[in-house]
Backbone:
């Protein structure tokens, strides 16, 4: 059976009287690489908080590989890897200790966790930082460790909320390349939230979120075509003004 | 999720809390210094004016385990409970900090049921507090605080229950506190009233001699019962009334804490995690 990696239907969310998300409908297939583009305050982080059940959705439905996040959070969350906008890695622990802690939160044995950690770090050419304290790492290395951490339990859906915030150009490229490879090799579905136009992959999908509403959701190629725009920046402006 | 996976998750949470505790040595020493200051200065100073004797009209064999004893011996149980109270509040402070810094999210997006995650975190904190208490008891030997060997063993379940109760209270408070800055209020409105309006520093019958209202307030203070449960068990006895009180308050605080962190109903729903 071919399950959707992520399926969101008629999702609304309010903070008090403020409507933060308005009738969100979204699907991601395994192996999809989608950029969620929006200005600050567009609702990207709130959407991620609902997908990861930090908040419960009061309306609509969120399903991860057909598991409803509200009714079956255990199975749904087991399929998600997430990198939050705000770094959530423990600075006082070593990389190995952080990765083991995360793996244990998914019920993994220590040996399997540490072996997986070494494989994932090697894949990112970072094996030498295994026993280093996170506090000693650069900003870019910390973010890459967070990506490794999100992949420890072999998730099928990877959520990245502005993963390159505060990271230099070289590390941004490394992160983007690595994530795209994951999509190809492991068929992981990726939802990458950003406010940076240059992070949009011209071969991937683009979702434009503005003031809590999805204004466009298609391949970048089609979005450029539908908006008669020469580049993503113009297309973005077209959709948020119309 | 299998039973083994639940165990592995619990082990990981205890591992992380122990490491954080190990790396934050200042926290360990301050947790020890606080009761030692009370023991070495306050208790010694007040020894001569605050002798603890049995209440008037009670027979000589009155069962209270530490009547007719030096004041340092009397407050030892209160200071042990104080270690656990501060540890519970410290854990709650670190949960508010984790929430503000974002690392709380790592825990909350785990696929394990949230009550299990919260209870595991609570248990990890209690294990750390029991280590602190035993470090205190070793140092307290210099003040001739020498409970019977049986007491050292019997106090462990009492410490476990009282630590869980105080930790659950801290966890509930952390779910209700919006910002780290508001935590100072907890000191003034929770820790100090709980500690001073209890039998930690003076027996309840002494309080009753001065104020009947305060006596009743102290009698229902959960901290009083944590102190009494520890005090009796330290001398190889069981205070059944305090055991019941501690268990009931533990259940109440735990339910409130789990409710507080429930994403659909609790306080956590209304704030940024």
Residues:
């Amino acid at each position: 059976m071919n399950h959707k990696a992520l399926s969101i239907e008629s999702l609304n969310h309010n903070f008090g009287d403020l409507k933060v998300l308005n009738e969100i409908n979204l699907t991601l297939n395994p192996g999809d690489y989608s950029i969620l583009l929006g200005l600050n305050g567009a609702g990207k982080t709130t959407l991620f908080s609902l997908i990861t059940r930090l908040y419960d959705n009061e309306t609509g439905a969120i399903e991860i590989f057909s598991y409803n996040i509200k009714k079956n959070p255990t199975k749904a969350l087991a399929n998600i890897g997430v990198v939050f906008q705000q770094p959530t890695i423990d600075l006082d622990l070593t990389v190995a200790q952080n990765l083991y802690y995360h793996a244990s939160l998914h019920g993994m044995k220590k040996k399997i966790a540490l072996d997986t950690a070494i494989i994932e770090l090697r894949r990112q050419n970072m094996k030498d930082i295994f026993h280093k304290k996170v506090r000693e790492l650069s900003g870019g290395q910390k973010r890459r460790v967070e990506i490794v951490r999100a992949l420890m339990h072999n998730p099928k859906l990877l959520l990245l909320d502005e993963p390159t915030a505060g990271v230099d150009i070289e590390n941004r490229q490394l992160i983007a390349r690595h994530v795209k490879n994951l999509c190809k090799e492991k068929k992981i579905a990726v939802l990458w939230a950003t406010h940076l136009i240059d992070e949009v992959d011209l071969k991937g999908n683009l979702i434009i979120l503005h003031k809590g509403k999805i204004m466009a959701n298609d391949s970048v190629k089609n979005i450029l075509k539908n908006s008669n725009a020469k580049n993503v920046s113009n297309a973005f402006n077209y959709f948020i003004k119309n | 999720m299998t039973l083994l996976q639940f165990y592995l998750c619990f082990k990981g949470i205890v591992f992380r809390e122990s490491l954080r505790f190990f790396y934050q040595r200042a926290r360990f020493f301050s947790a020890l210094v606080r009761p030692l200051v009370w023991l070495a200065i306050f208790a010694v100073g007040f020894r001569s004016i605050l002798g603890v004797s049995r209440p008037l009209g009670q027979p000589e064999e009155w069962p209270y385990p530490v009547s007719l004893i030096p004041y340092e011996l009397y407050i030892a149980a209160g200071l042990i409970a104080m270690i656990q109270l501060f540890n519970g509040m410290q854990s709650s402070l670190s949960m508010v900090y984790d929430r503000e810094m974002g690392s709380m999210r790592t825990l909350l997006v785990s696929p394990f049921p949230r009550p299990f995650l919260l209870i595991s975190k609570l248990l990890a904190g209690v294990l750390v507090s029991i280590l602190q208490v035993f470090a205190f008891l070793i140092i307290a030997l210099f003040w001739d605080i020498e409970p019977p060997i049986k007491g050292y063993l019997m106090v462990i379940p009492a410490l476990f229950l009282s630590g869980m109760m105080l930790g659950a209270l801290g966890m509930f408070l952390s779910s209700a506190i919006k910002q780290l800055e508001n935590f100072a209020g907890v000191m003034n409105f929770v820790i100090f009233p709980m500690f001073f309006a209890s039998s930690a520093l003076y027996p309840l019958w002494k309080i009753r001699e001065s104020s009947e209202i305060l006596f009743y307030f102290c009698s229902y203070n959960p901290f009083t019962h944590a102190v009494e449960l520890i005090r009796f068990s330290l001398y190889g006895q069981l205070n059944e009334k305090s055991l019941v009180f501690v268990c009931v308050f533990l259940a109440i605080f735990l339910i409130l804490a789990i409710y507080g962190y429930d994403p659909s109903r609790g306080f956590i729903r209304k704030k940024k995690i």
Observations:
- The first strand of chain A starts at residue 6 and ends at 15.
- Residues 82 and 159 of chain A are 5 Å apart (CA to CA).
- The helical segments of chain A are 44-51, 73-78, 95-104, 110-123, 139-151, 169-186, 220-227, 232-241.
- Chain A touches chain B through 36 residues (CB under 8 Å).
